[in-house]
What we know:
Elements lengths: L2 H16 L8 H13 L10 H12 L8 H14 L9 H10 L16 H7 L18 H9 L2 H13 L3 E2 L11 H11 L3 H14 L2 E3 L3 E4 L11 H13 L4 H14 L3 E2 H7 L13 H14 L2 E5 L2 E4 L1 H13 L15 H10 L2 H4 L2 H9 L1 H11 L6 H12 L6 H6 L7 H8 L9 H16 L7 H6 L3 H10 L5 H9 L5 H8 L2
Antiparallel strand pairs: 1-3, 2-3, 4-6, 5-6
Helix pairs in contact: 1-2, 2-4, 4-5, 7-11, 8-10, 9-10, 10-11, 11-15, 12-13, 13-14, 16-20, 18-19, 19-20, 20-23, 22-23, 23-25, 25-27, 26-27
Amino acid sequence: MTERILSAAQACLAWARRCSPPVAVDxxxxxxxxxxxxxxxxxxxxxxxxxxxxxxxxTVRGWDRTPDTLRxxxxxxxxxxxxxxxxxxxxxxRRLRSAIAAVGLVPDGPAEATADGIALPLLNRLDAGDGGxxxxxxxxxxxxxxxxxxxxxxxxxxxxxxLAAWVGGGRPLDxxxxxxxxxxxxxAEAAAALGIRPEGVRRGFDAALAAGLLRxxxxxxxxxxxxxxxxxxxxAADAWADALLSMARAPAATVLLSLMDLFVAGEPRPAAxxxxxxxxGAVAAGGPGTADQVGAALEDLATLGAVAPxxxxxxxxxxxxxxxxxxxxxxxxxxxxxxxxxxxxEAEHALTVAEKGRRVDAEGLLARWTAxxxxxxxxxxxxxxxxxxGDWHRRRLAVSALGGVEGDLEPVLGMYAHHxxxxxxxxxxxxxxxxxxTSHQAVWALLDGYAILLDAGRPLPGGDGExxxxxxxxxxxxxxxxxxxxxxxxxDRLAGGALGPRVAAAARQV
Length: 510
């Protein structure tokens, strides 16, 4: 038994003894419930949801006999959490207690039907064929201040915050309603005070609860533990992410599947492409819905700040949308790799993201990184990080980024002008490349360019045949002596006539 479970159990037993009359709690049953809850992946003894109730009930139904005290102890635990403000999830206390009271605990009894239509297509989208999450793309997180500002600019979240302020110290729940809600009288008063329709109050109430701006007991709604203004860095963004499904007008399945597809793809996509990714189908069949349904959901998500239009009917995920996806996936137990922020990102990492990262992360990353780093330090770090002989893609990216840098790079570039791997690229940056230069440095840079073409399955540029025709022998001799990883394949292409007959004849003699 862990110290946390022991402490939680002792607190519940002490609460039960203080009740009038005292509440009967079976200590062994309580420890089992808390241990099973932890083993199911819960990070906190107070983090309970209806799904947790169903999971533990499935375990209990496999026993030969169920203790008579189990359900009463479970209900007492729920009552204790609500009374002590210890329910850390955003689950409705009434809904949680009803689930505990109704869930089947009879050994080998019928299992409850579950509605996990989202799970399978989402896991498949994340390449989780064995039941575990597959490798996810590295994500470049936006600064917490940037995310918070975007979250506060979301109109429904601002309305939810306004409703939370109106609730003040607390209001009664409508005990006759099927779901937690303000009373009809309070709903009308809130709508008048906030200048919104009663339907907006109900939507704002759900969003405020999900964001942690409000919390509930069995009979009242009270101020939550989250504030949008004055909280720590990232608080507003976390509240927005937690409330997104409540703020969105589309079904949760459509929102989740659409956002996760844009997150994993990391590039703009139209609604029809998202539907095709999951094999089509309606929400009830495990898909995100039709293209029209997904398109409408994306339009709505754009007003919430989760996605942004990209032209041609396509949408791309925003940094705030990324924040939602990362937060949700981590809550589900997935490991999502985040890069360090730009100010702490090394050149090696920046080049890796620019080369292999998602498009939404790679675009403009090196320009932003060099601006944060400073011209001269950025130049030296990028060149050093691209100096491995096989890193021709990185060299192209580094030189492209440095070509757009404003600042005096000459002191740094001069240090690498004769570098065996970087020298030719540096000469291009300095504007001292002499066209048909067949020096080692110039030919190495030429081979880098050819290697990039070969990796892409493209032919060598025929125009180079005319440029090097008069120095064909010098060119192929230098190619053969460079030690470049792609030299042998390039020589084969040259001998086959990729740059014309004069270069081919010279290559055949090497």
